[in-house]
Amino acid sequence: MQRPLFRLFATDMALFVTSLNSGSNGNCYYVGNSRDAILVDAGISCRETEKRMNRLGLSMNKVKALFISHEHSDHIRGVPVIAKKYKLPVYITPDTLKHGQLDIHIDQVNCFQPTEPVQIGDIRVTAFPKLHDAVDPYSFMITYEGVNIGVFTDIGAPCERLVHHFKQCHAAFLEANYDEEMLDKGRYPIFLKNRIRGGKGHLSNKQALELFLAHRPSYMTHLFLSHLSRDNNNPELVQALFTQHAGATRIVVASRFEETAVYHIQQASEPPAKTPSVTVLELFS
Whole-prediction pTM value? Predict the structure, then answer.
């Protein structure tokens, strides 16, 4: 699909975000201001990353760092080539580097610490641990001029750390991996079903919606539903599920096949209208 080119001519007090790909076939998220940007994960090829950014009018020359959430191949597949070609620092934990067996020049490896912010230009990136069946997995909070973007995927269950950061987001990439009924009735073997829903696998639509309804801040303008399962979810289903309760928060489903548009995230001048109170039990009963 041909997308119009996007140019960063809007206010300098904003972050620009897009999902370049989201799913078990590869994950890569772009967050940047008018000068600098980062990629969270690089699970698609360098060539495909460049192609998708070019369609959006984004430049790899603005990308100043890669941040890696964990060692699974759909998050690191493109790292060695992208890092080498653009001489990018790669922020990664020692255990993730070791288990991912990444071929990165030692001078480009930067180890981050949980809850200690990393400064990339004027952008601040803070990592915090998450529940996932990887050796040392992290989510990320990206902040610039008071605007907060969360990247919260590959999460087995919402923990207190996730809730704390979600409450502060102007926009967030939030995993909505599977519909519980589709997973239960689907073709996956029981051990894989149990891995997905076992507390260190992935977040269901129901769990993601519960987090959104209970902890969305009034100023959240965008929610990107991410890492949808190919077999156990449906983009139209989850879009409709969230949209009916979204109020002024725009719901975007991040595709496993193509990039989203680039979205301009800034502090809202007025808080979004509140939606009626509803519980997840009411929705799924």
Answer: 0.91
